[in-house]
Write a structure and sequence with these properties.
Elements (H helix, E strand, L loop, with lengths): L2 H9 L7 H19 L1 H4 L35 H37 L1 H16 L2 H12 L3 H27 L3 H8 L4 H37 L11 H7 L10 H27 L7
Helix pairs in contact: 2-4, 2-11, 4-5, 4-7, 4-9, 4-11, 5-7, 6-7, 7-9, 8-9, 9-10, 9-11, 10-11
């Protein structure tokens, strides 16, 4: 692919239908990416550093000029933990989406192109995985692998491989009946060349849309894994884990320790959702799940 075609492909989401949704979602996600990359300079305190005197650390302090999002138990600054927590969340979500795409897309291409017993076998396996509720399957896999951000990403990728597989397989089934694919076969092109040069570029927009929507769902599922302690261990920062630790504050009227981590989860999920919906409108793709 020439440099000009690459530039045009990068510009495509910013043109035509859905560009407003895509741009808004990208802006939101970039804010969190900047937070994650520059966390040591943005956060006034370390993620496990007490920001108040020891005698005041036992009780959460409300938002103030010194602590814009207040403090949590043990004197942790909530704003600093939200900033540092973006690193873990983005790492888990991005890695899980990449892994599931790297597995689901090739399997969907091969299954849709060749059909027959291979297609029936792969479809049966993927449908079986797809039938499980995502959060339940992710918790089960993460429990077996053990708590760590990488293991959490692997468990999430198991959940979303069938999503990529189903969408790519469906697109491949349509594209393989096209005249230019029949012409490539008649001219004796190897299957590998046909798949990579003629079918894959046509299913790439679908893959991008599913990537955005899978990342949206993965943020919420990752928060569930962290809530059950399957991503990091306290006091390491993670928005879902911070929500769990803040549950005991709610009866005492302490709202900020749950509100701001929950807001971060909502905004990041919204950003990826807008990207996925914008790409879906741009390429006129309807998705499932």
């Amino acid at each position: 692919m020439s440099a000009g075609r690459v530039v045009e492909a990068l510009k495509a989401p910013f043109r035509g239908p859905g560009r407003g949704l895509f741009t808004a979602g990208l802006a939101i996600v970039l804010v969190f990416v900047v937070m994650a990359v520059f966390a040591p300079w943005i956060a006034p305190y370390g993620p496990t550093e007490r920001s108040v005197p020891l005698q005041l650390a036992a009780e959460p302090q409300p938002p103030s000029w010194r602590h814009p999002m207040g403090t949590a138990q043990l004197g942790y600054d909530v704003f600093s933990r939200v900033v540092w927590g973006s690193r873990v969340v983005l790492y888990v979500v991005t890695l899980s989406a990449i892994l599931s795409m790297a597995i689901g897309v090739p399997l969907g291409l091969v299954s849709g192109y060749y059909g027959g017993p291979l297609d029936r076998g792969l479809s049966m396996v993927m449908d079986s995985i797809y039938a499980f509720p995502g959060i339940v399957l992710a918790i089960a896999v993460a429990s077996v692998l053990g708590p760590s951000p990488t293991n959490a990403a692997i468990s999430l990728s198991v959940v979303y491989v069938p999503t990529f597989f189903r969408m790519v397989r469906g697109q491949t089934l349509e594209v393989r009946e096209s005249l230019y694919i029949e012409a490539a076969r008649a001219l004796g092109y190897p299957d590998r060349v046909t798949l990579l040069s003629h079918i894959l570029p046509n299913v790439a927009p679908t893959t991008l849309v599913v990537f955005g929507l899978a990342a949206t769902d993965a943020i919420l599922t990752e928060a569930g894994l962290a809530f059950f302690g399957l991503t990091v261990s306290y006091p390491q920062p993670d928005w879902g884990l911070d929500l769990r630790m803040a549950l005991k504050d709610i009866p005492n009227g302490v709202w900020w320790t749950t509100f701001f981590p929950g807001l971060a989860i909502t905004l990041l999920a919204l950003g990826f959702a807008l990207i996925g919906e914008g790409l879906g409108e741009r390429y006129a793709i309807r998705t499932e799940r």
